[in-house]
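TICKET: design request
STATUS: open
ATTACHED STRUCTURE:
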């Protein structure tokens, strides 16, 4: 299989109720902290908990996008519980990277301030190249962060467990098989983030909330594509948690 980056965005709008999903997802994002977890849990429900009765335990299809379940606040607890574990894994990993970024920014600020104090004109000359270096460094950090967050967050999503998510053997195997596609996916999401920022500026911040549902959906969609690609290349399979099974219990088989 090949990665379908644009499809990760288009599939959101294939649902006949995409407008209501967009509206309710935007309202969801207005809830501090919990809103992001809910939105993530809804997307996990769409992409991982929709197996048919005749599917194998590890579903290896993206499914029919038009049949994605609508956002429903009746499933509040389900969304919250399914989105919690990957959120915690991503939060802890992100905090570790944030600490590194903070140190680098402080050192760079001291360095630039020192140069500007000694040679004011030189500080202005260096401003543009330093900004370019900063952008490149920021992109490199995003890629490095995703190389760690994606496999750990994916394992948390599939197992619905924090402890099982910290499987660095799986993460190493995952990265070794699809690192190039993961980098491209990270850059694709960075571009979506820029578009989201522009929309937020043009709409005085309001548009950001209603653009987040398809953006979060796209990221979850890409994560599933990456997982399926890594399986195709001989990667380690993860048994889906029974907490991700929305099917009713199977009827007992009668014996003749």
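STATUS: resolved
RESOLUTION: sequence designed for all positions
ATTACHED SEQUENCE:
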């Amino acid at each position: 299989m090949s990665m379908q980056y644009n499809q990760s965005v288009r599939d959101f709008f294939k649902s006949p109720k995409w407008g209501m999903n967009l509206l309710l997802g935007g309202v969801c994002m207005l809830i501090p902290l919990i809103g992001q977890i809910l939105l993530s849990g809804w997307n996990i429900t769409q992409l991982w908990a929709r197996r048919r009765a005749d599917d194998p335990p590890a579903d290896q299809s993206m499914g029919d996008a038009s049949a994605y379940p609508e956002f429903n606040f009746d499933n509040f607890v389900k969304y919250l519980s399914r989105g919690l574990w990957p959120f915690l894994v991503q939060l802890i990993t992100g905090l570790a990277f944030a600490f590194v970024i903070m140190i680098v920014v402080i050192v760079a600020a001291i360095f630039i301030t020192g140069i500007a104090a000694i040679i004011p004109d030189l500080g202005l000359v260096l401003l543009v190249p330093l900004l370019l270096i900063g952008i490149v460094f920021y992109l490199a950090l995003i890629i490095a962060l995703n190389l760690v967050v994606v496999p750990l967050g994916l394992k948390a999503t599939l197992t619905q467990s924090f402890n099982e998510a910290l499987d660095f053997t799986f993460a190493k195997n995952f990265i070794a098989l699809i690192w190039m596609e993961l980098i491209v996916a990270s850059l694709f999401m960075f571009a979506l983030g820029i578009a989201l920022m522009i929309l937020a500026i043009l709409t005085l911040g309001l548009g950001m909330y209603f653009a987040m549902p398809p953006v979060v959906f796209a990221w979850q969609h890409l994560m599933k594509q990456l997982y399926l690609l890594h399986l195709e290349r001989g990667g380690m399979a993860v048994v889906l948690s029974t907490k991700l099974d929305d099917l009713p219990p199977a009827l007992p088989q009668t014996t003749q």
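CLOSING REMARK: The radius of gyration is 21 Å. The longest helix spans residues 76-118.
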